[in-house]
Amino acid sequence: MLEREVIIKNETGLHARPAGRFVKESKNYVSDIKLINGSKEINAKSIMSVMTLGARKGQMIKIQASGDDEEKAVKDLAHFLEIELPLLEKSKE
Amino acid sequence: MEGVGASPGISIGKIHLLVDEKVKIDTGKIREEEIETELNKLKNALNQTEKDLKKIKEETENRFGVDKAEIFEAHLMFLEDPEFISRIEGEIKNKRMRAEAAVNKAVKQFANLLSELEDEYILARQADIKDVGSRIIDLIMGKKSKKRDLALNTVIVAEDLTPSDTAQLDTRKVAAFVTSEGSKTSHTTIMARSLGIPAVVAVGKGLISKTVEGQDIIVDGIDGRVIIDPDPDTVKEYREKGERYHKELKRLTKFRGIKAVTIDGRDIEVAGNIGNLMELEGVLKKGGDGIGLFRTEFLYMNREELPSEEDQFVVYKTAVQKMAGKPVIIRTLDIGGDKEIPYLEFPPEMNPFLGYRAIRVCLDRDDIFKPQLRAILRASEYGDIRIMYPMISNLEEIEKANRLLTVCKKELNNEGKKFNSEIKVGVMIETPAAVMEASAIARNVDFFSIGTNDLIQYTLAVDRINEKISALHSPYHPSVLRLIKMTVEAANQEGIPVGICGEAAGEELLIPYLIGVGLDELSMSAISILKTKETISRWSMKEANEIVSTVISLENSHQIINYLKKVKK
What we know:
Chain A is an alpha+beta fold. Helix content of chain A is 43%, strand content 25%. Chain A has one domain: HPr-like (Histidine-containing Protein, Chain: A).
């Protein structure tokens, strides 16, 4: 099992539109993936759960993966949250 | 009945109620041997829902475009949600629930979790989850879909409309939407706006019980009102209102791309007042000539600590870039008075409007003022940004603020950060003291902007938030109109431009007076911009000057209002 902390950087946080994008990314990996925000721990492949996580801009959350591709999953998803999502949001403006 | 005007326009049509017949869901326990059957029912229903949604998505893409179809992409994701599915299956296997009851329960649980987030976008997704849920339930229970033929000029009345509902409607026949629930960002609103169909939402629980299929109804999306079973006079009145609205809309759109010029050729800048970046989009859409007032308080609100220089820099930079060369006047922090910021923990005051507020706070707190000045300076590298100090009541305040500004410039220079060293610095004229000192102040700044809301309050000694005396808070009081004139004259004499950015700037009646005294710029809410441009285009400076001489000779606001009404064009 691997985990990594990331800071939510995009304006709308992970609770709105970006939740769908993130879930799509998560589904590319066979590992079990979880997001942890304080005491909340949820399945990163479930859109409903990701929305209820309520992760907003500036918050630190943990990505946790266990399975065959855990290393790649954690690395890619962290990159997606910290770099790609804020960029995607900007390009939409 | 009153609601929220979600999409403007007037429609008169016949009601079609789009209400779900309440399906009775059997919550009784099943026998162990039935579990397999229920799981199968669920599986089949999920498969069929997926097929249906894909088809609707395709149809919507063809009819409304890819953007509008995105919502069904979200529906499909809900349908495939592993937590959602496993929860439903769990209810069937462990709690021995029927498939439809299990779906119903899971939908409710997730919808409740989402309602705790208090976010408009999420609340709209809540409706989506329920929408998907009822599709699955309908299929499990073998119900037909609610596709119906509509008559022309139908007004759809519903609790709330789901994307599946609207996708199945022949919207060419829909005259208006009315819903008991919903908000300015709900699906109904967005759909209605994009189709240009009037809509009133959030009318309240009574809506459905008070309406009957086929009844006549007037929908006023401008003022957010619906009238059921109206009398002929009312119908006539609203028909006329609708025509006026359409004519006005057509007439005003042509002012979007052109400058406001008087008949005899004087350019008046018509700019927008904004409180955040979303409102800036509104000003752009209405063709504003710039931002005459950017209130920065929003940056400091709804958070636990002061915003950093970087936070502010990004916002100011975005604003000026979006305005693409047009000026953006940033008013430095104006807190205190009626605007409180909890984390700053200012002690309560007896007379907050006369107390520790605006420039007085900033000059006392370098830790607040400096990051803002530095952020504005750095953003000035990206376009025509100007600084404006609020609530000035003496010259020393300007000198002090400018000294700090010079310090900030030196620091940025030393750090090698770029900014426009010639940045224009102006002040709000909103105290009678500033008007009396206007000439001296004008020699020390690059521009004036008259803030009428506070100027009225301080001149007339009328608390602007006390409803009992709100009638006294009027821009038509002769003293206020004279103070405006004095300010403009002082600015003209010293050769600096002068604008006005209070509510009064958008008052149709007052416009000939405002241009007549010689204001260079009027700044107002986005919604008034086009109308104001049109009004300006109807007057000549010669006529406006005559209006000013007459107004100045009148003795009270009553006479002034009557006179302005009489000469209105």
